[in-house]
Amino acid sequence: MVTLLPRSPYPQKMDLDEYETPAQIAKSLRIYWNLPKGPVRNVVDCLENAGIVLFPIDFSDRQFSGVTTLTEDGTPIVFFNSQMPGDRIRFTLCHELGHILMHRVPNPHMETQAHEFASEFLEGSSKELSVSPRSYGGLLSRYQHVPYTLGTQSRERDV
What is the DSSP annotation of 36-83? Predict the structure, then answer.
């Protein structure tokens, strides 16, 4: 099996005025990085190969997910809560990637925009939800981020 990794660092900025929606930005980044349709297999590898530094910390508070800062030379560093479940870590890393690409200036919708970006980036518009007993385990391993993603979307829509 060939692991597809980003062919180059992330674009410095992807403007919502140009791409219209966070989901479009996520789709464009997946194309730029040559990622196949379907769930991202290794979020950590994608971000680290793009030059983003990931820093796990035990924050002891499961309510805190992560935060991003830039070094003086513009290198993004994502601090994330190492005590979160794996699906939430993956979602948080992609959420922070959304902030890196879209939010040089804060706006009132930035958290919702980063959630939308993360959901699309992780899932990759995959339509393969037909399940047989043999494929169930593999399907679960490919969609490990979904429980957190669905919970986030439900809270945003007051479901």
Answer: PSSS-S-HHHHHHHTT-EEEEE--S-TT--EEEEE-TT--EEEEEETT
- Alpha-carbon radius of gyration of the chain: 15
pLDDT in single tens digits along all 159 residues of the chain: 444 444 457 777 788 878 889 999 999 999 988 898 889 989 999 999 999 999 999 988 878 999 999 999 889 999 999 999 999 999 999 999 999 999 988 899 999 999 999 999 998 765 444 444 444 454 445 445 555 555 555 455 443
pTM, full prediction:
0.75
Our CA angle for 27, 33, 34, nearest 5°, is 85
Tokens 């992560």, residue?
A: 66
Query: Which burial class, exposed, middle or buried, applies to 26 when counting CB atoms under 10 A from its CB (0-12, 13-18, 19+)?
Result: buried
